């Protein structure tokens, strides 16, 4: 039974963090009800440590109140949902406390910076779920309409048995070796570099699209630029970069498929290119996040002379999530992956069903990232992954639009 | 002097109409202040004839109040801006009354259904402007970052002297001959078909990008499907389509350039493809609205062996409007052409400068559309356009982001 | 009855001209028998006015002998085929004489520089055909495998009823206003500019793909650069350009379709871009000669959510002409449009059937080009084309590979 | 001193093998002199075991004589060049005998099926070279104009220091699990599968483009379809596939760059897609063999707002090899990679310089392939490659067109 049953009061939402992800999540909360039928909710509190800055952000992004201590919102009866956009090293503490306080939690990826944290969080989520308190990890690209369509096509057998998968996430914001240090480039704050930040999305997509499990991993990581200007600028001297610039892996999947994964922050000219290629025995799919409204599909059962990758402009009412938006051919932006995420999270909370991806799904990605690092530390030697002790509940989920 | 000078009260906005364009404009009003520094304003009143429907739309789209008679909002002192999203045949009456009442007017394109209306509106706008009351016609594609960048590159001489221009707007929603009748397919309500609806955008872009004037027009229009199922469905019988499905024109420009223009609603597989190609003697530009975050640029002054059209992913902070949004490579959607439009309109209103495109710009497009129809009615024979009696004021405008 | 019946001697071939087209045709003759089963033939004589130059060319391109007077080869019994690659102003005299001498004629396009010549040639061809002497005009792009496939798909109804067609041929070799004068830029030698040289290909493709007839034409031509450095260079002063740099037309087709045609030699960055788009009520096709091994096909009868233009890499054995070449994915070059042309010409000659495109087909294109010029000279006013007095025989032809 | 010095007799060429590669090499010999200035040569003898079949092939492909025993051509004084297109398992015996007989050898890749053979051949080549007898291994893609241009741009520093490289060769001819057995799918005849056949090309390109050396390799291979219909068809039962369908590797380069390599024969919809991406700190390059006339180049030193991958249509006279061919925009086909190869081989032979890629280059690729297999057999654990004992001579070579 949902904790909200029997009440018609709007769900109260508090969000912790207001940087890049906070801006994107706020946009989702501010707009979701203009496009989708969702339960009533209110953007109540924005939480951040700097009182003035958080006040400005709240005004800008549509939050009614502010707080500087995230613990205070856990005590409030009018807050039902905590949206955690704080940095990764704070995830475990906040999420566990929120779940214990009976709050539904939407948590930005990655689940956590360490395996121990991730496991504790997953246990807390399982416990909370048994009491009707929901949780979800924000692998937002599961809600790109083109990728939701890709999953549907694969599930419907349109490309047959999947064999060979290629996943890559290529960016170039560190191609300039004068790009300065930040918390993202230190192991103690970021956990890892391209691996945790973007390879994680690529790996999550492999699991999502194939609905499969990784059994074996070979990995490699590399830092091309080992020292960068400190926050004091060049005068302040160079500081050590302690995370990877790039990562490579091959993943064996339980089904027999093999996926290659590649992530880079020095792929000059690639701005935000999450590329997926899935080759089955009856067809194939291709996707690039830089053209997020497009899916390339090849039907290998068509007559040979008519075969070819077709560019589906995923903007028809028949496509996942799209009927809420604009007429065909009027494309949507990156930020609406979060709008869809919030929509699905709200529907799950109101219906008392477990949203997807769950913390277990986030833990699964974390285990794979961990195995990549283990393999990388052992000369790329293959690392076996044992099946998860507790199979993730409710991971199938729905990816369909209204 | 701006009528708002000396007051710090937020600008009150009323919007008339809540269909497709109303939904898109509402999105702009609801979000513009989250991304851009704009003067304070309030989404006060949404106006529509059906009280229940307008109430539902207002709740969904963020309007505080509703009204069923647009005249009532003109009488209110707390309303400073009227956003006209009503159908074209209502434009003249509403816009002239609003301007006369001292309200700033943002008006969806096309300016009007007839030349007489367009001229009366332009006169009213000129009169109002002299009293500090501003007006703007919503050729939203001027605020696509890629097209704003294209204009800047042309103005900076990066493609040299422009000679040959190709403009096309291709859609396919009437390719199915069973697609039903609507007000858009009747001359008395829509004025024209593909010509006024989408060729108008293509023509406006030619004027915008080249900052030029049309002197001569040859045109052609055609209706491929002359009868369609009535609103009563097939049983209700077929009704006559009285507007064009497709239109073609060649335009001579004062500079010596020549532009071809082509519009179609039966271009199967083209969903919303506004295509522009501008060939100069030092370079060239290409654009397709289906990939609205991209601009193709060729620099013909580079060494021959390094020349080629480069795909600029218009998502860098250095690009027009983009620094307000997301990190590089995170694309924006079609709807934000309106967000940028509203931002520029608000800035113009608050600074007391004339926004662009003006009603004069809208009239100029109208005159060209009219010439296309005249030519089409005369076996495509060239029609001369005399220079506008009153040159448009303030049409240069700014297209730059914050 | 074929004049070759009863003899097993190889067909003797003489070619007149050895510039650009001569080089391309020679390549076809030199290689056709290595890939296709064709009747035996010999590359006997290369004809050109400059004895030394023609000798060098013959050695390079594989011709056994040379001659400096084309009339001499018409007298030889061992010459059965004349391949005319001489400039357009020589076409009529050579072709008529060759046909009268009982030689099969393969003639580069355009058929002729004037309508009078074209008509005389067509009459000669018809007369010769009645005696078993064949003739063909070299619209080589009919033998691009992707365009042959396009024609087959249209003929098979895969895109339904064709309505809207867009044809363009864009080049940029005259974008530089210092590009020098040549015979191609003077009316007396070239007949016309972009119109005859490249719009002719675009128009021929419209006729070929749709198997249709033009009834009405509106046209426009323009010269952007009116004076160019003479053959003596800048010091020698500027000379007048007397042909068009660009041309535009709309064509009404007997079926009810409408085609736009656009040609330019100043389309900066477009190198050799013959673009075709054919929109039917059940699908669409797109092609660009710069990617000549690809055809884009959209099947509008597929479920909406799976529709999209598919890029067919036309390199499968199932595709026209392709099984003679390389394994799938190994693309062929532009020059093999001529190899296919020569193959089909040889098969037609040996089987005594009329090859396609015939001189009548060439005349039909010429009539349309003439109408474009007439219309252009009359302010773009529509010009009617009466149906050809003598319908072209054997124009359907075969475009299939072996 | 070249063995040909002092003689003006044409070089006599014999070719061994006339299947796929023989057809492609024959095309090169038949046409090279029509486009390039090369020393005089004659297509003298085609060698194959089946007398009737080789006679037919010789007639078709332009060889004057035939032989059924390759040893006979080694004894002839009028044969100076042996072009080895026989299967890989015959390479060592033929090449060593030919070199010992003083014949220049052009040898199809891969160099050999085993490391022992490859080393013996390389020693023979080094010995022969010291006596003026030349040898070359046919990594034909080094002569794709776009890739030759890529190498020049990298060498000129246009993309700065190379860091991250992605190389993939994707085909799909084994995607159908009913595709039958062949010698290519058995270890004893083919050596390996996708690895040796196509990953070898990808690896050679990494070495070629970067002019670098591999120091460390992690690898993986996999066979997705383990049993296939035998040559007797389904009735004949299934036979074991004993080579890989796909291969993955990461390569460390001496410069500090890292390359990923991926090859597949089950990449449904990818027909012949050799993809290369080279990311430097000042720019990037991309290439796909399915569009072999195009190179994508990004100049990261341009102003941010003008940056983007530009599609260079490699068809200008300024591009490597291209001035021999057609006007700009007229693309060439796959087969001319061999035409360029033969051209460069002939020039090297006649000038007495060592052609590139040498057998040492072929051995280097072989050593990397061997390391991939070693690593794959050891759970992907990294394998170190020691620097070659004898550095390859003359490997820099020239890739420029005439």
Automatic annotation (TrEMBL), chains A, B, C, D:
Keyword Aminoacyl-tRNA synthetase recorded: no
Molecular function terms, GO-annotated: nucleotide binding; oxidoreductase activity
Swiss-Prot/TrEMBL keywords: NAD, Oxidoreductase
Residue span, GFO/IDH/MocA-like oxidoreductase domain: 149-286
Top-level taxonomic group: Bacteria
Cited InterPro entries: Gfo/Idh/MocA-like_OxRdtase_N, Gfo/Idh/MocA_oxidrdct_glycsds, GFO_IDH_MocA-like_dom, NAD(P)-bd_dom_sf
Domain Gfo/Idh/MocA-like oxidoreductase N-terminal, chain residue ranges per copy: 12-138
Coiled coil: none
Matching Gene3D superfamilies: Dihydrodipicolinate Reductase, domain 2, NAD(P)-binding Rossmann-like Domain
Protein name according to UniProt: Dehydrogenase
Species per Swiss-Prot/TrEMBL record: Pseudarthrobacter oxydans
């Amino acid at each position: 039974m949902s904790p909200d049953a029997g009440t018609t009061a709007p769900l109260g939402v508090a969000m912790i963090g207001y940087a890049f992800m906070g801006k994107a999540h706020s946009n989702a909360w501010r707009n979701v009800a203009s496009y989708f039928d969702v339960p009533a909710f209110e953007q109540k509190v924005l939480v951040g440590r700097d009182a003035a800055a958080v006040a400005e952000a709240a005004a800008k992004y549509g939050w009614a109140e502010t707080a500087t201590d995230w613990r205070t919102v856990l005590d409030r009866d009018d807050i039902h949902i905590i949206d955690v956009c704080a940095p990764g090293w704070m995830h475990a503490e906040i999420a566990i406390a929120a779940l214990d306080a009976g709050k539904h939690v939407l948590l930005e990826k990655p689940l956590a910076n360490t395996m121990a944290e991730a496991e504790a969080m997953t246990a807390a989520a399982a416990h909370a779920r048994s009491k009707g308190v929901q949780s979800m990890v924000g692998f937002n690209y599961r809600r790109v309409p083109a990728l939701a369509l890709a999953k549907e096509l694969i599930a419907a057998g349109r490309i047959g048995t999947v064999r060979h998968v290629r996943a890559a996430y290529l960016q170039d914001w560190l191609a300039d070796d004068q790009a300065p240090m930040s918390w993202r480039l230190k192991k103690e704050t970021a956990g890892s570099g391209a691996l945790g930040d973007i390879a994680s999305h690529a790996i999550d997509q492999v699991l999502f699209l194939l609905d499969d499990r990784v059994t074996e991993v070979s990995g490699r990581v590399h830092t091309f630029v080992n020292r960068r200007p400190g926050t004091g600028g060049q005068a302040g001297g160079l500081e050590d970069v302690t995370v990877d610039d790039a990562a490579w892996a091959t993943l064996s999947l339980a089904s027999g498929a093999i996926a290659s994964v590649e992530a880079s922050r020095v792929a000059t000219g690639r701005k935000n290119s999450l590329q997926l290629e899935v080759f089955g025995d009856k067809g194939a799919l291709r996707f690039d996040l830089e053209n997020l409204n497009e899916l390339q599909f090849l039907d290998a059962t068509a007559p040979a002379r008519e075969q070819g990758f077709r560019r589906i402009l995923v903007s028809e009412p028949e496509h996942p999530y799209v009927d809420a938006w604009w007429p065909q051919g009027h494309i949507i932006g990156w930020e609406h992956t979060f709008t869809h995420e919030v929509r699905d999270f709200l529907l799950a909370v109101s219906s008392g069903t477990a949203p997807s991806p769950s913390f277990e799904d986030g833990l699964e990605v974390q285990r794979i990232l961990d195995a990549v690092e283990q393999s990388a530390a052992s000369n790329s030697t293959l690392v076996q992954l044992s099946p998860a002790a507790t199979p993730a509940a409710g991971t199938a989920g729905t990816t369909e639009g209204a």
